Amino acid sequence: MKFSFLFSIILLNIILIKQAKTSKKVWKPKIGMTWNWILNANSEEIDINEKVDILGVDLFDHSADFIKELKKNGHKIICYFSAGTLEKGRPDTKKFFKIPNLVMNKMSDWDEYYLNIKNSAIKPLMINRLDLAVEKHCDAIEPDNVDIYLSESVKKWRDPVTRQDQINYDIWLSSEARKRGLAIALKNDIDNVITLEPYFDFAINEDCYVYEECYFYSYSFILNKKPVLAVAYGSSCDEDFLVKVKTSVYGRRFSVIIKDPNRLVQKNYLSYVPEKDDMIHMCIKEMAMLNGTNVTSDKKNILLKSVIILV
């Protein structure tokens, strides 16, 4: 009996040691890290020397060698792909269309098709994308459209995706990512933030300020020392917009950037710290950015006068 018990303990230790050796360390981003989102740019358009901690890039648009160059300059890299829709022109698009009942109806606002995430055949295809992220040296992934169950058109399917289906799929994605040493972001999906936070390493949000829902992140991700990378779409010279953003994120310790929604390129963005940045100086920086002017130059006074006239 004692021998059997001792053997069991030894066997368990061997298994645990083996698991520890084979498990890969997952990057843990920290609250306060700076970031930029560059989804609509070729590699040659990206400045590898940009002074931010994190760069979000498209998984398919850049080579492994280019991502290694970005990492050499001190950047952590988040790689974007859609996990709930199929975008035209992706290298693996044909593989999705070959599977019955996987590619569903077209989205109303985008040239993409909803994917039936209840179809188990989606998993090998997503695993291929995760493996590609590993091959390209991504530190983390940003799977988009992980809340398709909320879509009115998806609700009309004969066998619609339920909230629990979505949660199960999102947790599966997280598990597979972490197995491969990839951190994973929860993109939007505010309704499930509290439930899914334990399975994700950080959050990316585009619209919590619109619906005054940013507080959900304070009591989930931020509370558990996980960063929230937030993007607000609009102009810093628009007082109503900036006041709304400031009211929503003030004191929440989010990493906020402001972008033109039609230009997710590298240069056209501003980092926004609501506790420090007022509207006039944010607008000055925006005008300088759009005009290619150094904010610290003598032209600052001219820009300041222009801003005062605008506001």
From TrEMBL:
SUPFAM superfamilies: (Trans)glycosidases (SSF51445). It is an enzyme of class 3 (hydrolase). The keyword Transit peptide does not apply. Keywords: Signal. Pfam families: Glyco_hydro_114. It catalyses: Hydrolysis of terminal, non-reducing alpha-D-galactose residues in alpha-D-galactosides, including galactose oligosaccharides, galactomannans and galactolipids. Residues 34-260 form the Glycoside-hydrolase family GH114 TIM-barrel domain. One of its GO terms (molecular function) is alpha-galactosidase activity. Gene3D superfamilies: Aldolase class I. This is alpha-galactosidase. The lineage of its organism: Eukaryota, Fungi, Fungi incertae sedis, Chytridiomycota, Chytridiomycota incertae sedis. The keyword Lyase does not apply. It comes from the Eukaryota.
